[in-house]
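note to self: the first set is below, dont mix up w the second
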Amino acid sequence: MIATTCRACGTELEDPAARYCSWCGADVPSDEPEEISPESEHTHRQHAADPLRYATLGAFVLGALAVGALTVVTVSALTRTDVNQPTSAPTTTVTSAVTESTHASETINPAVTQTITIPFPRLGGVGRYHQDGVVAMFGIAGDHCGTREGMIGASGTIRNESPAGQTFDYIIEVDLIRVWTRARIGHLEATVTGLAPGASADWSVEIPSTRVSAIDCEVTDVTLTPID
């Protein structure tokens, strides 16, 4: 619609198409729509979209900050130690030593009541041997094996280490074996009687020999007989 009067002073316009009032000089607005260039329209739309974009970005930043704060609070809650909460005392295991009774030795090392034989005892030092439910302890050693003054044989010592304090008779059996052929020359026995606990005695076995021979001496058995 075309204006016929000046909106500023109310004077009737002589030329309805005039852009200025001839009386007061005010602009006469045109009712025709203003042409907008594509560049201006793009700029306008971009500016109109800016608030939404900024609002979206702000919401994202605020959300990230909130998640970070929640994570910090959660980790702090998991790692926080309440100083007022009572802590359990450390557990200490105490192992008490078992005191043996005065008669424990009689149970652990019962007395030998009958003759027993220990096969192939260990030479040198004290041996502890379990036989038929009892324990025998003695030490046996060899100090000679070979030919001497027309005799061939072996000798050594034996010591009574009875844990029950018993006295024994001992029979020591020895094989004389040729070194090269492993043939047995003889099987000999040495006897030691009435050997008290803690005491030692010598033993020896020998047979006549007309020639010098290289031999091995092997203690095959020791037999113990209690006499008290």
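second set (the one i keep forgetting abt)
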Amino acid sequence: MRPNVLLVVLDTARADALEPYGAPPGSTPAIADLARRGRALESIHSAACWTLPSHAALFTGLLPKATGILGEAERTPQAARPVIEANARRSLPTVLGRAGYATAAVSTNLWVTEDSGFAAGFDEFRFVDSGRQANLHRRKRRSRLAWDLEAMRARVDDGAGAAGSILRRWLAEPRERPFFWFVNLVECHSPYLPPKPWNDLGPLERLRAGEEARRYLTMAAIWKACAGAFAVPDEALERMRRLYTRAVRLMDDWLADLLAALDAARVLDETLVVVTSDHGENFGEGGLMGHSFSLDERLLHVPCVLAGPQVPDPPPQTWSNCLVVDNQVFVAGMTARQGDQIVGGNSMYEQARAVFAKIKHLVEAAGGRMDDVVKVNIFVTDILRREDVWKARREVFTGDFPVSTLVEVRSLFPKEILVEIEAVAILGAGGRS
């Protein structure tokens, strides 16, 4: 029997914001569990850095230029409609519809709507408009006061709740055919203002976050930052990153609730679940903000986690980077590689920080802490830059430092890797004298 298909696009979700791709344990437990039951594909890249061309490529299998999404077609959703509909015969909902699937979609993104042509091929298409994207740009005093009040209260989402209700109604309806459901959620898209309890800032901090969104997250402000006039304060960036992380957790909890509903309806085991993103997001890296006016690996490397019937097992592993034996944790082969990206670029200090962060996550996941690490072996490609490694080491260890060995090697793999670290931790050994 053909499986149902549930395709969920977590709009603007960076790959490294999810656990299977390096986020700290506990960041996205539902997605991590989905990956354990299925697969988290590593080298998946979006065809574009923003919603319209990315979804056009996702639905048709064509690169954006081949779909015709260029120039005037990118200006408004309505301008894109004839181009998107011209490709409808080869789009995912049309193809699955011809194969006997009942097709339905719910989107919270104003670029993925009936107005923009994406309803073509779907039996039913629902658009949920929270209005927040439009409110971000309104300048009248009353609109600004309403925006500030909403930000401070933190009571509304960007459509995830309504989208979930629509899916539950569909789930309660009788079905004679397998379904293909597509969902787009924009909860971690700017302005990064999730509702409570995911928004864990105090009222004044939430108010600041709302004002910072109006100041730094409009299209004009993002363009200005990416064009070289970057002026977003570190404090504002840190608030944005924190709320972005909390918004990602909101979507993970939303997914957990939906999967539980599918399971209660006894259709989860018959459903191929695919969770992905259309692009990532920048938070000041390289002087870049947002996603519309720049192009880099943070924007193009996207997650793709799938589980369900007919998902092949991953190829057998020939080694492990972490083993827990009794009360000992062995970590090896830790580098700054994150999928196809090297965190930290050509900075040995930044690469070392990224590696120690990975080791910290693994040790903590095993029930320990960094003070439990008793030994590290550090391999570097340039021993003259060892002070960069020591600086990073001082940031993660307190009390007695672990015994350490530093070795210079000719090269590491891939060649952009400057430092590799292995560590041994004994759980409970922290505070040794």
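remember for set 2: The mean pLDDT is 91.
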